[in-house]
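Re: [ENG-882] Designed sequences occasionally contain unexpected residues at chain ends

Forwarding the minimal case from QA. Structure tokens:
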């Protein structure tokens, strides 16, 4: 129960609320890496990197806990840190699960500094090592779509559908493909499906930005009624304080003022 409380709080981006139940769960079962990962996630989101390093001796293998440890090492200036060295070696592991994890975490950690081709190679290795994991194939499809390799992205998404994958990773990959094809309506539709699979702060934010940008584009094209609909849907997500909500609300008010000023009876 404590783990579930922490999991939900972290997905709602409330790390301060997640920290205590995550620590309780981990203390009850110190060998459980899932419990530890939720605790480290809470620390990461609170920028408590020293505390993450203090728990480093308890990290086993190259999964999520190793990723959070690598993040802490990077933020504290340990570049390259021992965890990145672990991933660099684990990429070549004969154990498929270990190699796939290492490839995926390396991409996530170094995405901004790796060439696009290197990202594709690493994610392709992850998929080859663990072809039934939708998370890896979804990452590969998203990368291919953002790199302009649309046909290859479609192929990966088609394979996910054939394997019965219809979860969060599948729909976020569909959204990236739609963006690569400049189909904003289909992107919004896919992000709605993704939010249905995982209703959390991140899925609402992704949908909110897509709705705001569709509304902004409609304004530029002179489609005021359509723009107002998109912007109203963005603000209806009730993400007050998020940048997309502030921008959507501001643009909607400008549209309302303009329509009032140009009404025929004025």
């Amino acid at each position: 129960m404590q783990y579930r409380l922490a999991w939900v709080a972290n997905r709602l981006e409330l790390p301060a609320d997640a920290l205590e139940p995550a620590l309780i769960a981990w203390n009850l079962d110190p060998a459980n890496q899932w419990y530890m990962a939720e605790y480290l996630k809470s620390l990461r989101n609170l920028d408590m990197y020293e505390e993450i390093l203090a728990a480093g001796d308890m990290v086993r293998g190259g999964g999520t806990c190793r990723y959070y440890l690598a993040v802490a090492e990077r933020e504290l200036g340990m570049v390259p840190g021992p965890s990145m060295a672990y991933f660099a070696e684990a990429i070549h592991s004969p154990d498929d699960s270990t190699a796939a994890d290492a490839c995926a975490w390396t991409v996530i950690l170094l995405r901004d500094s790796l060439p696009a081709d290197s990202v594709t190679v690493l994610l392709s290795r992850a998929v080859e090592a663990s072809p039934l994991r939708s998370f890896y194939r979804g990452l590969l499809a998203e990368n291919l779509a953002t790199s302009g390799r649309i046909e290859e992205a479609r192929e990966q998404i088609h394979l996910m559908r054939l394997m019965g994958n219809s979860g969060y990773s599948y729909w976020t990959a569909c959204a990236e493909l739609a963006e690569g094809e400049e189909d904003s309506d289909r992107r919004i539709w896919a992000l709605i499906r993704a939010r249905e699979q995982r209703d959390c702060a991140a899925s609402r934010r992704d949908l909110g930005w897509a709705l705001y940008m569709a509304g902004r584009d409609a304004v530029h094209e002179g489609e005021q009624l359509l723009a107002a609909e998109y912007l109203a849907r963005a603000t209806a997500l009730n993400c007050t304080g998020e940048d997309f909500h502030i921008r959507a609300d501001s643009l909607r008010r400008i549209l309302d003022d303009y329509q009032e000023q140009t009404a025929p009876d004025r």
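QA comment: On inspection the terminal residues look reasonable. The chain has a mean pLDDT of 92. Proposing we downgrade this to a documentation issue.
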